[in-house]
Each structure stands twice: as C-alpha cells, then as structure tokens.
Amino acid sequence: MNAVFPGSFDPITSGHMDVLTRAAKIFDHVTVTVMHNARKTGRHLFTLEERLEILREATAHFGNVSVDSFGGLLVDYMRQQQKGIIIRGLRAVSDYEYELQIAHLNRQIGEVETVFIMAATRWSFVSSSMVREIASYGADISEMVPRASANALRRIHADVYAEREAEKLETQLRVDGGVGERG
Question: Boundaries of each Cytidyltransferase-like domain copy (predicted)?
Fold first, then answer.
C-alpha cells in the first residue's frame, strides 16, 4: 500500500522525519509531497525548488520514499497519483482538532483516508516556523532538523551565524586571555 505525506516542509524538521521514518516502515511506498499554493507565493522562507532539494537530500537514505510537489487540492493529487492514504503527523491535541476536520473533508470530497502518526514526544514542540525563528538568530538548530535543513538555514542566515561565531570566539579569547594573565 502506498501513501502520501503532504506538507509545506519549510523546512522539514526532525519531527517530520520521525513521522516519515515510521510511515516508511508501515507502507510500501511514501511520497513526500510539497503542497504549494500560488496565492501564498512569498510566504515561505525557501522556494519550492529549494524545499524539494532539501527533501531529496534529507530522504535519500530511504529506499521507499520519493519527493514530489503539487499545487492544488490534495484530493486531486491523490486521485491523479492513484493513492488513497494520507499521512499526517500530530504533535498535540490542538493539531488533532484541526487535522480531524481536514481528514473528514478529504474523505468526503476525495474518498481518501488519513492515517495519523504521533510525533515522538521529543519533537512535540518543534515546528518549521519555530525552527525558522530560532535560526534567524543564529542559534543551534542541528537537533531540530535534518542536516539538509540545517545547512540550508545556515546558508540563508550566514551573516547571523558568522556574527554569532565571532562573538563566541571573542568571548573565548577573553576567557583564555584572562586565565593566562593570572598565571
């Protein structure tokens, strides 16, 4: 049985990867699909092409996962691809309430089923928007996202990361210099 794991993936997080890893063990094939909406152009940090590239890199180690994109209703994509299962990750009860409504609508208009996979507790607080915010300050996001996402975020915020590293080096030099003066 094949499934689709849709999202904006701006960028893909460790929580997404956790859900995908478990879905890949359950289903014969999982297509990670970047859903894009022309009316939301400019609202994403990464372009569609960049998100696809990040996803391809992050999922390259899976033998049964592919990456695709679609710009319309998810149920239309499901019909075109002849797939009937949607994978959705849940982090909290608030996610469930929203996702339940969407699942009912998708079943009603597209005759597709939704399978919910709970993200591991350690990722329940991680969202793409929070990761983007943290990265914009040059903080360490390496545990919250796969390497491909971390590298892409560091490239976008290279000036902030460079400034943060320079501050760390300057602080370390002051500490090391202070120790040497006392000795």
Answer: 4-133
| 42 in a labelled binding site | no
129 is in an annotated binding site: yes
Decide: 118 and 61 in contact? Cβ < 8 Å.
no
Which one from 44, 51, 83, 128 is the annotated catalytic residue?
A: 128
Respond yes or no: is residue 91 known to be catalytic.
yes
pLDDT tens, residue by residue, 86-139: 999 999 888 899 999 999 999 999 989 999 999 999 999 999 999 999 999 999
State how many domains the chain has: 1
pTM of the model: 0.87
**φ and ψ of 53, to 5 deg:** -65, -45
The Cβ of residue 59 has, within 10 Å, a number of other Cβ atoms equal to 22
